[in-house]
Design goal:
5-stranded antiparallel beta sheet, two-stranded antiparallel sheet, globular, 145 residues, 60s Ribosomal Protein L30, Chain: A, mainly beta
Length: 145
């Protein structure tokens, strides 16, 4: 296990509108506000999303098992922002539902907002961390400096 202790910094509240992409929107806020580490909460709706629901393959490298969600539907999620060499990167897991359909996982490859998405970003100060590529698993993983 690795860990670091920080403290809450700024709290950023945002509203995304119909069709806006979750990742692009949150990462652009983080770049603009120079957020390097944060916790992220979302509440709202997805129009569509491509969601990793677990590994399809674990060796030699992890390959995600994807599901497509076609909304509109409800979503709530919790995640983090840490930087890699290109800047802030969002990692979020969500529960998405519409009627009897429910999908839990990590939305990737386009997560479009339905009507409104409320976003809360809680900056973490005093933690030196970032995402670095792990060639053994094929993912960018959190590392503490």
């Amino acid at each position: 296990m690795e860990y670091a202790v920080g403290r809450a910094g700024r709290i950023i509240a945002a509203r995304l509108f119909e069709g806006e992409d979750l990742y692009e929107s949150i990462e652009s806020i983080a770049r603009r506000e120079a957020v390097k580490s944060a916790a992220v909460l979302i509440t709202g709706g997805f129009r569509k999303a491509r969601v990793v629901v677990g590994p399809k393959q674990e060796t030699p490298k992890i390959v995600g098992d994807f599901r497509d969600f076609s909304g509109p539907g409800e979503v709530l999620g919790v995640g983090t922002i840490y930087c890699d060499k290109e800047g802030p990167k969002l990692h979020i897991h969500t529960a998405i539902g519409k009627g009897e359909q429910a999908v839990v996982g990590c939305p990737r490859g386009g997560a479009g907002t339905f009507l409104v998405m409320e976003v809360t970003i809680i900056e973490i100060e005093g933690v030196e961390a970032g995402r670095r590529s792990d060639e053994n698993v094929g993912l960018n993983l959190l590392r503490f400096c």
